[in-house]
Amino acid sequence: MKQKMKARAVAVKVLLRVVVDGRSLSVALPEQLVKLSDPAERPLTQELCYGVMRYGVRLEAIAKQLLNKPLKRKDRDVECLILLGLYQLIYMRIPPHAVVAETVEAVNAIGKGWARGLVNAVLRNFQRGEQKLLAKADSTPADRYAHPEWLLAMIRRGWPDEWQAIAEGNNQYPPMVLRVNPAHGSREAYLQRLQGEGMAATALTALPTAVVLQQPVEVERLPGFGAGDVSVQDGAAQLAAWLLNPQAGERLLDACAAPGGKCCHLLEQAPEVKEVVAIDIDEQRLQSVRENLTRLNLQAEVICGDASRPDVWWDGQQFDRILLDAPCSASGVIRRHPDIKQLRREEDIDRLVALQGEILTALWPLLAPGGLLLYATCSIFPQENHLQIERFLQTHHDATAQSVSDSWGRAMPVGRQLLPGDEGMDGFYYAPLLKSTG
Ligand SMILES: C[S@@+](CC[C@H](N)C(=O)[O-])C[C@H]1O[C@@H](n2cnc3c(N)ncnc32)[C@H](O)[C@@H]1O
After folding, report:
1. What is the pTM of this model?
2. Which terminus in the chain has less CB density within 10 A, N or C?
């Protein structure tokens, strides 16, 4: 049997998978959590990993002040352990002596016994000089807000008056939001079930099926989760089905469907639609679409394909409504996926903007005259959002932007934008586009 480890050592393994191998936390965590000697340490391990990703830039700046010289590349694990230690000392309520003792102990488990003295000295020196060290980190915006410089600069360019609030919002812990399946009962009835289980929750007023839990829980603990009574989905993502508003007898395309949250919501909301075709380029992620459809007892035609190449997979029958939840920077959901700060690169943004434009242009002919295409991103960058749509409208004269009368978020020149934390929701952009009948 492989050697089992304690929380801090497992957290280092997870962080290495992200910073060295470029895996996302949502993949790396479950993969490494099996190495825990005590499953009760799962929440702690998770908190450590998310915390280091959330505040990594700030923690690195502080570690730099404390190290005489940078650690070698082969010692990234020791560096991760130091960041873990600092994270606990600054942001967690663990007694400092326990933080130092447990973190120093983890050097053996990661096979770097030589670093014992170094980790101990760095953490103790932090305790001694805490105020000065934090003040120095706070003197640089990127370190203060714990964002890579390029990312903070891009947020600032897009939102000159809101950039600080956005950066702070990105560092908040997101609420766990549920979508109640109306076919299985009302939201009020589900709120009562939660109450019966001792889980405090409130209705999210902007949406008829959304419920916000006061404390996140493992999905298996949600009443009726396995039976499809409820799904986990942020309120902002739940807006898609209401905006697309599918009707009985219609044919729908969900282009970029994985892991299937919005696809399932569309089917829950309008079970009498004729057909839903769900496309995604990533076969592995499509497996989650199939699992979600099965759990919720819903049907869709699931196709692995490139949305920018419909010539390869389209049967030639036009769709009444299309959801294009485009691949994007995910800059609106950093609070949920703080590893984005680590994994996303500045040069990705232009590539994504080009891909979004290509997919939009390729899918437009698939929409029937009089049909509706809902363009969506979980981005806050104007170039992925209203600037993208304005460019599309200039070159597609049979397209008009439908006004969104809702009160959530903020009106943009075209479409509506939610910034992270607006009305308790993730950062999202929506633009419904109507195709003329003439
Ligand atoms: C924002 S996610 C979609 C989330 C999904 N709509 C949901 O609600 O669960 C974007 C998806 O686009 C997919 N994707 C990226 N490039 C694509 C392409 N060229 N064609 C089809 N899907 C693509 C990714 O694999 C990813 O699953």
Report:
1. 0.96
2. N
Q: Do the Cβ atoms of 137 and 143 come closer than 8 Å?
A: yes
Domain boundary residue, one of 199, 232, 265: 232
Q: Which atom of ligand 1 is nearest to the CA of 327?
A: 10
Q: Three-state DSSP class for 117?
A: helix
Cα-Cα-Cα-Cα dihedral of 63, 67, 72, 73, to 10°?
10
Q: In degrees rounded to 5, what are phi and psi of residue 185? A: 140, 170
SS3 for 314-327 is CCCCCEEEEEEECC
Give residues (CB < 6 A) around ligand 1: 237, 256-262, 279-282, 285, 306-308, 325, 327, 359
Which residue CA neighbors atom 15 of ligand 1 most closely?
Answer: 327
Residue 328 within any structural domain of the chain:
yes
Q: Is residue 403 part of a domain?
A: yes
Q: What's 212's domain CATH number?
A: 3.30.70.1170
Domain shared by 192 and 310, yes or no:
no
Instruction: Name the residue of 256, 269, 340 to mutate for ligand 1: max ligand atoms within 8 A of Cβ.
Output: 256
Distance CA 352, CA 340 (A): 15
- Same domain? For 226 and 300 the reply is no
By most ligand atoms within 8 Å of CB, the mutation choice from 27, 242, 280 for ligand 1 is: 280
Domain that holds residue 423: 235-435
Strand 399-401 versus strand 410-411 pairing type: unpaired
Pair 300, 401 in one domain: yes
What's the CA dihedral at 87, 26, 417, 206 to 10 degrees? -100
All residue ranges of the chain with pLDDT < 70 are: 1-2
Q: What is the predicted pLDDT for the residue at 2? A: 65
The total of structural domains in the chain comes to 3
CA distance 379 to 313: 28
pLDDT computed for residue 253 by the predictor: 98
The closest-lying atom of ligand 1 relative to the alpha carbon of residue 307 is: 20
The pLDDT tens digits of the residues spanning 43-101 come to 999 999 999 999 999 999 999 999 999 999 999 999 999 999 999 999 999 999 999 99
Report whether 346 contacts 432 (CB < 8 A).
no
Active site residue 378: yes
* Structure confidence by residue, pLDDT tens digits, 365-420: 999 999 999 999 999 999 999 999 999 999 999 999 998 877 899 999 999 999 99
225 and 295 share a domain?
Answer: no
Residue nearest to atom 13 of ligand 1 (CA): 256
Residue 156 lies in a domain: no
